Amino acid sequence: MERERIVASMKNSEFRRLDQKKVSEIKNNFTGPLIAVIGAASPGYEYVPQLGIVAGYELRKLCKDKGYLFSGGVEGIGADVFTGACIYATQNKFPSKFFVVIPDNYTILDDSHNDLVVPYDISNTYKAIERITDTECEIVRAGYEMSERRLYLSAIADVVIVINGGSGTFDEAKIALEFGKTVIALQSSGGAAEALCQWKMGYKPKAVDVKYRLKPFMETLSTKPSPEIANKIIIAKNVPEMIGSLRTFIKTKL
Question: What class is the 2-184 domain?
Answer without folding.
Answer: alpha beta
